[in-house]
Structure formats: C-alpha cells, structure tokens
C-alpha cells in the first residue's frame, strides 16, 4: 500500500506542476518573447513609445510584455487606460521600485517615484495648495514677463539655437515660481542654479534607465557595505550633496521678501502650509526640486513642438494670427485673454496630443490583483498607459499624425470640445488617476501664455541653407531621454510682426 500511496502523491504533485506551467495565463496576450528572457531584447532603450505603438497595431489596445522576474501590461487605448488607471486608481497608483534612483540617490524623497504612501499623500497636499487652479493664476505675471523676455531674446539673437532659449525660459519661470529667484534673462547668478539642477536631473535620468545598475535586478546588493559596492557609495554621496543643495535652495526661497500684491513663491506658500499637513522641511525641499525637474524640460519640449508645427502647418499659424490680431491687436497677450481665444487654447491641447513630452507616461504598479474584463493584472505588474498611442489612436482622433487644433473645438469654433471626454477629464499628456500631474494648471497656463506671445510677436518661418533652399524640420526625429522626449533640433526664423516690437517687450 505505501508504494501506491507514494506513487499517487508523486502523480498529483506532477499534475500540479504541469498545471502551473501549462495553465492559460489571464494576462492579456502580447508579442512573443524568448524563454526566460521574455521580451527584454525587444524593448528598445530609445523610442520605446514608437515600439509600443507598433505592438499596439499587431496586439491590440491591451497587451503584455515580460522581462526576467517582471510582467508589464501596456494600455494603449483611451478606454483601457481610463478603466484601469482612472476608475481603478486605488490599486494601480503604485510605482515600480527604483532602488538606485529613488531609494539610494534620493532617500525615498522623489514624489514622482515613491509609492502612494503617507509621505506621497502629504506632499501632494502642499503641491495642491501651491499649484491648484486658483493658486496657479497668481503666477501669471511671472509667466507673461518671462515669455516677453524670450521674445526679446529671439529678437536680439536671430539664428540662435531654439531649444536652449526655450529651456532658459521654462527654467526661469519655474525657478521664479518656486523660489522667487531672479529672472535668468536678467541675472547671471541663476545660471549656476540651473546647471546644478541639470546635473542632478541627468544623474537621475541615467540611474532610471533599465539595467543601468545591477542592484535593480539583484536588490540584495543594496545591503552590501559601501566599501564593497562602489555604486552604493556614489549614490549615498550623491544624496547627501543633493539634499544639502535642495534644502539650501528651499531656505533661500523661504527667506524672500514678498512685497505688495506679489504672488508668494511656492517655497513661502509651502512653508506656511507644511506644518498643517505634517510635511518636513526636507520633504518640502525635495518636492520643490522635483517640481522644477518635472516642469522645466517638458514645457520647453512642448513649445519647441509648437514651433515645428507652425512650420509644417502654415495654415494653422495663419488662423492663430487672425484670432490673436482680432483679440489683442498691438497689445501683448496675458493669461486673462484665454477665454476669448479658443483657437489658441485648442493649439495648446493639440500640441500636447501631437507631441506629448512624456510619450510613454510614467509607469504605474499594480499593488494588488486587478481584474479587467477577461484579464487579471497580477499584483506587482508594471502598468504603462502609453500616452503616445492613446493620442495617436486613429478611431478616436482620425488622421492623428496631422496637427489639427480644430479637433478640440466645437463645430462653431467658439468653445472647446474634448475628444476623450468619455474616458478622461483632462489632457492625457498629464497622466492618469491619482498620479495625474499636480502642476498641470500651472503648466497649461505657461504654455498658453508663451505660445500666444511667440505667435503675437513673430511669424515663424522656415530657415534656408547656404544655397537658399528651405530647411524642413525633422518631423519624426526625436531627442529621447528615457521618460522625456522632444523633437530633434531644427533651425527657424522669427520675423517680427511689428516694427515697434522692441519698444513693447520687457527688458533683459
């Protein structure tokens, strides 16, 4: 009897093993991969958003990828992204674990990278206090002034490289808004701050790249002593230096004197609110640093995309000028003009749809099993809402590669419409669910003011080469930094629209 029982037990165990191996997965199907490696060799380090869109065409709007020890679900259409990341945001608002970038180099203080825990909740509250819709309007004067200074810079420096000028503007605006710092156009000392912050951003970007550090694949390496782990020594020293710099920058912002009706900088406002929400000085300092990183590069990328669109679609530029001239005449634009300028508002939305600065979105993490239709997304799965694919979905937008602001306007052209209104209540470029960008009101205001200012001041024209031939911008070439992406550099000409332009622009 005993051998028979033992044999029966072995048979049952074998059947269980076979079942676990052969049972159908409840993950959505996806592109085939290699044994053990899965799709890891197919996932590009650059242009991931284009690869995801390619896979969407062959695998549908919901598909899965695999890498050693990790499952990934891609939501590449508006409905699935809204269903999973918006409607079921509680279990899908986690973040993948970035051991080097977030835990070692940032002490678990990057609000964009930490889990949706209590620290994340209280830090989000002070961001909401400083950058909600009403509070963001208080920064309009800064945004208008810096946009005017950008135009003066372009007027005085014809032929300059476009993107650095746009980046100086976005960096300057966010520095002034956060820390009440001087304008980068008028104060050379600000360049040192920008350079230091840029170095920190570059280091974080490199650390976030897949396989940049072996500790991401073998987390136990994190617990090695410093002398055995050079990566750990570097990361801990980086955190110490960055923490001291960000806290000092924050204290400088808190010490600025507010005069008259001037809007408070975020540092001052958060210092008043942080005790109420239980936020430490260190946390507030890192929140400010992350806000700077999130806003500076993405805003510049969007305005660069606008300039490219004006070259590729001159009829759109012509319509924008007609609205600008009818509403503004010779007067410089302000944020208060936006309600009377639906076409310019639609241009901002179309720019973010056509060339989203974060085209793959920031990855989410399922913190528990999530059932969606016939599928189950297991706990621990990375969930990507592919913003590029959603924004370039032909059934939703029609001719999605074409820059056409009218898709965001009603039939009479006087009010805004939202093609994604059945799924999403805001621009999809700002993310999903509880991870929706908390600075989106400030960003939208900035984009409207800067884009309108440029089109009010200039005709944006093609540059010509030494033989007089028109230089076309590289429509489908990109500078890809992993999470963020912008068009490849291109020359263009900013031709003043009025002879007295220099008399009405802010000085630099």
Automatic annotation (TrEMBL):
Range of residues in the leader sequence: 1-24
Cofactor: heme
A Gene Ontology molecular function term of the record: oxidoreductase activity, acting on paired donors, with incorporation or reduction of molecular oxygen
Coiled coil regions, renumbered to chain: none
Key words of the record: Heme, Iron, Metal-binding, Monooxygenase, Oxidoreductase, Signal
Pathway: Secondary metabolite biosynthesis
Binding positions (heme): 437
Pfam family of the protein (one): p450
Family assignment from sequence similarity: Belongs to the cytochrome P450 family.
PANTHER family found in the cross-reference section: P450, PUTATIVE (EUROFUNG)-RELATED (PTHR46300:SF7), P450, PUTATIVE (EUROFUNG)-RELATED-RELATED (PTHR46300)
Name of the protein this chain belongs to: Cytochrome P450
Organism, as annotated: Calocera cornea HHB12733
Taxon lineage: Eukaryota, Fungi, Dikarya, Basidiomycota, Agaricomycotina
